[in-house]
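Run log, item B.
One chain of 439 residues. Sequence copied directly from the ordering sheet:
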Amino acid sequence: MSSKILKSAILAGALVLSGICYAQTPTDSDYFLRAGIDCYNKGLLDEAVIEFENVLLLDKTSFEAKVWLAQAYIDLKHLEKAGEVLYEASLQAPDHPKIEQLRNILEEKSVTVKKPAEAVPGKRLRPFGLVIPENRIKVNNPEIAVLALDTERTLEADEEKNINLKDYFKKEAGPLSDVLELERTTGITAALDLYIGKILKDPSLGAQDDKGFLMRGNRIFSDRFSDNAFNPENRFYYGALLYINGSYADSLETLEPMKGSAGAYSEKLRPIMSALEKWKKTEDERIMLAKKAEAERRQLEELARIKEQNKKQDVWDELKRRRTGTDAKPTAPSDGTVSEAALAAALHTQGYDLYKKGKLDEAIEKYNECLAKDDKNAECIYHLGLAWTDKALAGDTSGFDRAVSYFEQSIRLDPNSKNAKEAVSMIRDINSARQTMGE
C-alpha cells in the first residue's frame, strides 16, 4: 500500500513540476505527447518518461504514448517496466511492426514479454484487428466476399530495420497543420505570425482544434509580458493573443501604446489595430445607443411615476371631499364653534395622513379620537381595520383579531359601500394569512 501511495505522490509531483494547471482534455494529452517526443529526441529520457506517463494519466488508451514510453524505458535499462508497458500496447495492436521490434529487443536482453491470447483459436491475427473466420463470412456476392477475407503483409528485412515511430503515427492535418509544424520546427513566434495572419483573413479558423497552440502561446507571452511589459515583442504578441481570444478592450489597451513606435512590429501591428479600431467605433456607437435608450426609459418611468402620483392625489382629494361632504377641512358654524362631525372628519383625515407615513400607533390613536366623536363613521372604522392589519403583519399578530372585528363592524354600518366589499376581501386574506402562519 505504501508503495502505491509513494507512486501516486511521485506522479502528482511530476504533474506539478510539469506546470499542468489546465483541464484534462485531449489537447493537453497531445501537448504532453509532443513534449515527451521532444525530450526523447534531445536525449532527456527521464523527462520524456514523465511526459509520456502524463499522457497515460489523461488517456489510458493512447497507443502512441505506450510505445514511446516502452522505448524510453528500454533506453533507460528499465526492462521490466518496458515489458509491462509493451504488453499493454500489444493488447491494442498485437501485430504492429513497432511492437514486434521492441519485443525482439527485449527478448535479446533476456526479458520475456507476454503476448495477448488469440481471440479466435486457430486463426492468426491480422495487423490492427482480428481475422474473421472465412466459414463465418456469408456474402452472396463473391466479389464482396473476397474483400472480407484476411490478407497478410510482411515487412522486408531492410524496411524492418528502419522502423521509426514518427513514420507510424499520423502527422498533423487540417487548416492549422502548417502552424503546428512551424511551431515544432521554428518556434512559437513564427507560428504565431502565421496563425494571426490566418485568423485575420478567416476568423472562423478560431473554432478549429489548435492542439493547445493558443494555450501555450498565452502561457508564454502572459509570463513574458508580466516580467517585462516594455519589450515590444512581449507587448505585441500578448496583445495579439488577447485580440484572438476576444478580449478586444484589453487588447486595444495593450497595443495602442505601440502605435507610431512599434518599429519592427509596425507591419504586423497595422491589421490588428485596424480591426480593433473598427470594433471600438462599433462599440462606442452601441454604448451611445444603450445610454440613449436608458435615458429614455428613465424619462418614461419618471413620467409614469408623476402620472401615478397625480392620480393618487386626485383620489385622495376626492376621498377628503367625500368624508366631509364638501371639503376636508372642518367648518365652523356661524356662531364660531366647530361641530362634532367636522372635528371627527378632521381627526379621521389626520389619522389617514399618519397611516400613509407608516406611523401606525399615532394613526390608530387619531382614528379612536374620531370614533369617540362619531362612532358610526364606517370609513374610519374600515381604515382602523387596515391599520391593525399592518401592525399584525409587522409582528403584532394579535392585531389580526382587532382588524377582523373592525372590518365586520364597517360592513354592518355600510354593507353596500365599496369599503364593505374591500373589508370582506381583507377578512378572507387575513384568514388565509393566519393559516399560512400556522395560527
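Observations after the first pass:
- The mean pLDDT is 75.
- The domain at 340-436 is CATH 1.25.40.10 (Serine Threonine Protein Phosphatase 5, Tetratricopeptide repeat).
Flagged for discussion on Thursday.
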